[in-house]
Structures are given as structure tokens and as C-alpha cells.
Prior knowledge:
disordered N terminus; about 25% strand; 5 strands; about 170 residues; alpha/beta; globular; Nucleotidyltransferase, domain 5; 5 helices
Amino acid sequence: MKIEAGTTEEDVETRHAVNNMLPFAEARIKIYCNGYNRPGSGIATWGWIAFDANERVVESGMGCAGRGKGLSHHLATYHATLEALRWVQFHAGDKVTEIYVDSDFVVGQINGLTRCNRKTLRPLRNEAATLLATIKATIKRISRPANRIARALARKAYRDVLAKNDVQ
């Protein structure tokens, strides 16, 4: 995927609007997922973005995974991944999908390579693994810089939560 330096969430929104006018290309989708949690903020947010084989934005999403104590970026990353998997299931289930996440922790747990010891994450891991098994998808680890657009969406969701609730 070609991502230029300085790409902003506005660039993503513009690219998404233009790409919605183009036909859905080929049978391969790449989805990038990210979760964000500023320590001590009590807010966990997520973002994901899907590209077709021609590197056009197909869909994206962002939101708040929760507010309160005990939240983590791992929980937020699980929410991003689940939202992306649900989108694939209902909108692109027949397409081969590669999901990229910049967390060894989450990728290892969903792929069954590492144990999930946190009780709060087990239901999320189980749902993600189940969804992954029902569609033509794989989940892989990528570097944080390669995941910058999904990270920008997760951070935008965080800023939106702060703005909505007038919390700093």
C-alpha cells in the first residue's frame, strides 16, 4: 500500500469519497486496524480502513471502545479488528481479505499462538477467531509506521470523544 508522508484523516475521507464513485475492484481486500488508549485517560478508541486490490479505499470505520478504568490499547485494537471482520462478513465475505494489525499481542492471540490471560479480552479474542474462521481472511502483524492511516483514524476518534464530552 502506498501511503504518502503527512497523510491525514482528511486525506482518508477525501480518498474514501472519491473511491465510492469507482467500481469495487478485484477479489482482494487489505484492512488495517488500530486501537488507541492514552494512559490514564479512561478512553479507548479504534479505527480501521479497507483498501481494494487497486489500493482504493473501500470502507473505513472508527469509534469508541469504551470509557472508564481498565481500558487498554489491546482492548481497543480488538474492537477495531472485530468491526473490520464484521464488515467483511456482511459486505465482502467472498473476497480474500488480509487484515493487518500492529500488535503482536492481539495477532498472536487471535491466531492461537499465544494465550489470552485477561478475562476481559477472552470474549473479544473468541469472537475474532470465530469470525476469522468463517470468512476468507488472515490476520498478520505489521509495523506501526505501515499502519499510520488506521492509527490516524483511532486518534481522530479519540479527539472526537474529547470534543463531544468537552473533556481535556
